[in-house]
Specification:
This protein has 213 residues and is mainly β. The chain has 2 helices and 10 strands. The chain has a single domain, classed as Porin (Beta Barrel), CATH 2.40.160.20.
Length: 213
């Protein structure tokens, strides 16, 4: 019994190190996100951030739990429509993804990735005080507000608007090692994200580059 315990204790660090090196992965990336479809009528490209933790059960297949966030800056035309209002919008998501690599060579590993999860779009609006209402405009469709009588009371929209939805993503990328036998990899990826948020569904295409461990 003692011999078995000693043997297990001596092998445990090696097994954990091997498991981490071959199976458990982490990801960190930065880049830009481009809005598409109706989103492009309201917002333009913004900065994007990606972080993930994954597990590979074979040399080519794995799963990745990923956090993604991007800014959704409004066009000047929308800002002009809203006059004195100052809107800001951001997208956040946590998704589970399946990844399949195509190891055609030892240096470069192209892959496809896709999955689904929770998407939250948060919009905040600030305004000067002592103003009671504004005229209806197409820019207000982003928040899903309907106009009645030609005006919208500001106490209904000057605050934070949060929309949650279950969405999905899919894309492709390529990764490679910095050193032949090193654990540190670089990667470049492009992905399409869709979430059926209220008002205007969110559709973005982030292009990011970063590191995987």
């Amino acid at each position: 019994m003692k011999i078995a315990l000693l043997l297990s204790a001596s092998l445990m660090p090696w097994n954990w190190g091997t498991l981490c090196a071959q199976r458990v992965t982490a990801q960190l990336g930065f880049g830009g996100s481009i809005p598409v479809e109706r989103n492009a009528d309201f917002v333009h490209s913004g900065l994007a951030f990606v972080a993930g933790l994954g597990y590979h059960w074979s040399g080519r297949q794995g799963v990745l739990l990923q956090y993604y966030s991007t800014g959704l800056p409004f066009h000047d035309s929308i800002l002009n429509q809203l006059g004195f209002l100052h809107p800001q919008s951001n997208l956040y998501s946590i998704t589970a993804n399946y990844q399949l690599e195509f190891r055609e060579s030892k240096t470069l590993h192209p892959y496809v990735i896709g999955g689904g999860g929770w998407y939250r779009r948060v919009t905040t609006i600030t305004r000067p005080e002592l103003v009671g209402e504004i005229a209806c405009s197409p820019g207000l469709n982003w928040w899903g507000y309907a106009c009645t009588g030609g005006f919208v009371p500001l106490d209904k929209i000057v605050a934070a608007s949060t929309s949650d939805a279950v969405g999905f993503s899919g894309g492709a990328g390529i990764s490679g090692r910095f050193k032949k036998d090193g654990l540190l990899h670089w990667y470049v990826e492009i992905r399409y994200h869709y979430a059926p948020h209220s008002g205007v569904p969110t559709q973005t295409i982030p292009m990011v580059a970063g590191l995987t461990f």
